[in-house]
Design brief:
By secondary structure, the protein is of the alpha/beta class. Helices cover about 50% and strands about 10% of the residues. The chain has a 5-stranded parallel β-sheet with strand order 2-1-5-6-7, sandwiched between helices. The structure holds adenosine-5'-triphosphate (ATP) and magnesium ion (MG). Adenosine-5'-triphosphate (ATP) binds next to helix 2 and helix 9.
Amino acid sequence: MSDVEIPEDHPRYASLLTRHRIEEGVEKGITSRQGLIAQGRGEAFDYLLGERTIDSADAAERAAAAQLLLADHPVLSVNGNVAALVPGEIVALAEAVDADLEVNLFNRTEERMRAIVDHLEEHGAENVKGLTGDGEIPGLEHARGTVDADGIGAADVVLVPLEDGDRAEALAEMGKTEIVVDLNPGSRSPQTAAIPIIDNIIRAVPNVTEHARDLADATDEELRAIVDDFDADEALADAERVMREGEFGGAAPENAEAPSPDAPLADE
Ligand code: ATP
Ligand code: MG
């Protein structure tokens, strides 16, 4: 997919690939220029996390999978960054949990809506919602609050990756159970979420799908227990702790344990 060669053994391979995809998203009219800035902000937090899925985020991803499987009408919201970074992966998640996909943009333009729908369809999506725009999130000005009445408007559980704080709050006030993916544990969006996932979208979405597949045969009681065991405040606090206590020196391997305070330094 890339016309720029990035050597796979480059220490910042994942980060460079991500930047390239976002850049390509802007060129294709999928991602807004604002989206570039959002990505930069996210990267800084990911650097502090060690560019890995910490254990508390993995637990949040499992709870998110359980919550999506329990839902009557789950909807995955897709914006320009999500479409550029994880188009195939978000389609696979929608299939795994039987959710609708809805394009929902902070800076809504018909061109960009259409470009994202087309891009998702190229990645196998069907019946992507968002273009109708006949519903509304109360409490937001028109352009920001437009949704499909039979999509996000009717959803009981919504996954909103990289959502703006105001919209996340307005959705929660509508009584939706919100799952937010955001690398900044201090941002309002994850703080309003029932299930905040403090992880990079490129790792989070495939991992929620993996958990969903693993839980495909679980009973509602088992799924409910996973959701009930999850503590949002604890997850936010844990991510903040890892960021504050983390050490510089390069990204840790994926899913590595968070460094314990008395662990010996590497290379000693
Ligand atoms: P507020 O406090 O109102 O929520 P904000 O920090 O959300 O403000 P934005 O820049 O609009 O303001 O939000 C972008 C958010 O998306 C940031 O919190 C950033 O950490 C997050 N983000 C950006 N890229 C990614 C990514 N690849 N994966 C996960 N989160 C990301
Ligand atoms: Mg936010």
